[in-house]
Amino acid sequence: MRKALLAILVLAFVFTAVAGCAPQKPAEAPKPAETPAAPAPPPPAKKEMVLNVNIGTEPQHTDPNKATGVPDNHITLHCFEGLTRLKSSEVLPGAAEKWDILENATKYVFHLRKNAKWSNGDPVTAHDFVFSWKRALNPETKSEYAYQLYYIKGAEDYNLGKEKTPDKVGVKALDDYTLEVTLEAPCLYFLYMTAFPTYYPLNQKVVQADNEGWAAKVETYVGNGPMKMVKWDHKSKVELVPNEHYWDRASIKLDKLVLTMVEELSTELTMFEAGQLDVTNDVAESEIPRCRETPHWHPVPNLGTYYYLFNVTKKPLTDVRVRKALTMAIDRKTIVEKILNNAGFIPATAYVPFGLADASAGGKDFREVGGAYYPEYDPDTAKKLLAEAGYPDGKGFPKLEILYNTSERHKKIGEAIQAMWKKNLNIDVSLQNQEWGVYLDNRTKLNYQVARAGWIGDYYDPMTFLDMWTSTSGNNDTGWKNKQFDEIISKAKKTADNVERFKLMHQAEDMIMNEQIVAPIYFYVEPKMVRNTLKNAWFSALSVHDYSRATIEK
Predict the structure, then answer these.
(1) Range of the domain at 285
(2) How crowded is the C-beta side of 491, counted as CA atoms within 13 Å?
(3) Model-level pTM?
(4) Nearest to 8 by CA among 34, 38, 32, 33
């Protein structure tokens, strides 16, 4: 804070006798000099409102067309804005101020804000959306989330190379501020989709100047969201400040949002308690009982599942009996209660989590209708299945390796499952820890046997957990391909009958679980510490939290 310096002025007056012809009058006594009033000190400098949030790890992609991970999306969410924006589960107007739903919900016409601008001052236009969506669908972009655009007419054929040009993709700019989107079939949650990163616009001029590198440099990371990037210390932190050109700049009260990348949970909590963080990414299991007693404990329910992936292309995991044996030999209750310290996690005996209403059953929960696919723990059945697969009491079974990304929790769970598989199946398992980007790369290339994974829903519908397992999905890291499953998903996406759609989605989950391409372990909750002076943060069950409108009380 600047300190005011008070200047004291000293005035000296010299009186000289004036000679003249007339007799000199006696000199009058001089009046005392008046000391001028000191200037008022300037008001104290306004303290910056800085919010420090830990996102856990370095993002892999900050290009919205390529972003897939939660760390990626924490940055894209604040620096970009889709046609809509989510306030928790509520759909709000974003870059579009309104829209028309036409032709039995197969055509949407979005009317863009004429005062929406990019962080470099360029106007945001309908052409920016057309450019971005077609770029994401271009096979050369290798967007893992391109399939999220398949709701749009012609999008899948272009992405899969059946159409060589994007001319037939059902998105076009009617003028600078009107975007028309034609869908393959009615999609009841399409407005949710338009808030998803793959649907964000891109500044064509900026991207085409450096197609591969623009999103990796602060000076060219041009977005249309409420914040803009001003600093990126890799593997340390990203600093965001308000985008002065954002159409709703007046609602952004933060002076700075700092996203730190601290992976070690103990370090993260120490930083929170020292006042260096306002929001943690996670809390270590051992610290949960103590943290629960503070006013800052803030668990966030998640629409998500923690699971293990099986690489079905590598023996002995090519045998579904082996995959089922490994799944049933996991004691989920012990993991949730002992390792995770009863933080609110739920043992998972299916893939789609609780929290989604089922239209085929009068609004009951989709998970309740679908039920459990196996007990929480069934070591006896696991032993029988392994013996049927040719490995009685584990004899002759090759050593397995579990791949996981850096995390105390992932390590503890891996060690517990390693012990369970040894105890129940008599098989040897090693653990392999890798940094986030390397781990994701090896998963994508199927350079693993068993891998830790987690999936948080991208929108509020069971489809967000199911279409990722299609043969063409960039998020299917199992090597499993099934034409019948692909057809079920395609049919579910194209039907206008919502009751029929849910029945098809249950069939799709049946196939995933009967084939046991994954071993669900628990349904998520986010154990967090959030400073109780933080207000107006939009926490979401989709795990990407919006701090753009947040304030910090004194």
Answers:
(1) 52-298+528-552
(2) 16
(3) 0.81
(4) 38
